[in-house]
Amino acid sequence: MDYTGAFEAAVEQVRSEGRYRVFADLKRRRGEFPVAQWTRPDGSVRDVVVWCSNDYLGMGQNPLVLDAMHKAIDAAGSGSGGTRNISGTTRYHVELEQELADLHGKSGALVFTSGYVANEATLATLAKVLPGLIIYSDALNHASMIAGIRHGGAEKHVFRHNDLEHLEELLAAAPADRPKVIAFESVYSMDGDVADLAGTIALAKKYGALTYLDEVHAVGMYGPRGAGVAERDGVMAEIDIIEGTLGKAFGMMGGYIAADAVIVDAIRSWAPGFIFTTSIPPVIAAGAIASIRYLKAHDELRTAHQERAETLKRRFKEAGLPVMPSVCHIVPVMVGDPVHCKLVSDYLLNESGIYVQPINYPTVPKGTERLRFTPSPDHTDAMMDDLVVAMDRLFTRCNVKRYPAVA
Q1: Under 8 Å between Cβ of 350 and 39
Q2: HSE, side-chain direction, 13 A CA sphere, residue 127
Q3: Catalytic residue among 106, 180, 248, 313
Q4: 248 assigned to active site
Q5: What is the pTM of this model?
Q6: What is the mean pLDDT of each successive set of 10 residues along the chain, which is 407 residues long?
Q7: Are 229 and 186 in contact (CB under 8 A)?
Q8: Which of 350, 368, 29 lies closest to 358, judged by CA?
Q9: Is 205 exposed, middle or buried (0-12, 13-18, 19+ CB in 10 A)?
């Protein structure tokens, strides 16, 4: 067996499809977000403006968060010491889960090492706890949700994206006495659309199903205290399991679920992805606590963020750039070809100091490649001016399809 050749062929396939990624060597500088220092392949450096960070609100630079982390590392050291079941539970973990349960109005919460692990472990474990489970999954659910559902081995039905009529058809066809879970997201981060939470909850009640809502792109971002779209829409109490991340709007890393204490206890006791994984370090938990507390009390940051996103959408439309019809803070611009998508991204970085990664297959379907912009409250009008001018120039040079300019 030519093992080396097999790996080389796998990489070459990605290259031939125009979706091979080269990581940009970036160094963030405290207090200067969204500006970072890029080290080119030749070793030279230049400042760039980052337009694709999931640190949506710049909380990774918040002085209160950083101060909490400094204090925690001085007090507790670096690592957690092990899994939560053995030696990896600290007061920081306990307080973080209390903050998360309070944020979502639930009696329990459980922290994982990432949002991916939270989804994979929880959805897989539900199939063990609920024999005969049927899971109904939105067609555009995240890869971590798909992996968890597959790993659990429960019967699965995929409903068309945000199509509640199709979901009801599938629910109605199942035996009434079988346990059911509807798994879906609030904000779908590649298209920028939002699920009908109230409608989904109504179907779950009608057919005796639990609701599992992924709010990773919404926690910190929506609702008076930043609990997500479910809080914004006034339906948070009616969602059975909420999954979120600490790695986006909260500016840290890690994932979690929030639910009734008995549900959390069952997942804690049965999920291998939790039981056998070293817990997040106390310094990370301390930073997350500070970030959550800050965002609970600072709705004005969310207001500023929404204004920035709407302004960028408007500016792109006025320039005739094919911004997709997003109804949230995500600003995706369609390119439709992996080679062109990477070409535009490379030109933006090399010529204009603008960093935005191409989004290609398998993250999005082939033929829908796009650039995904995530403006923050710290992106200025001048930064938007530079971005729009550069995008306008490159869409012409690279012959990318565009819309008529809006007067």
Answers
A1: no
A2: 19
A3: 248
A4: yes
A5: 0.95
A6: 96 90 92 96 96 97 98 97 96 98 98 98 98 98 97 98 98 97 96 96 98 98 98 98 98 98 98 97 98 98 97 95 94 92 94 94 89 97 97 88 62
A7: yes
A8: 368
A9: exposed
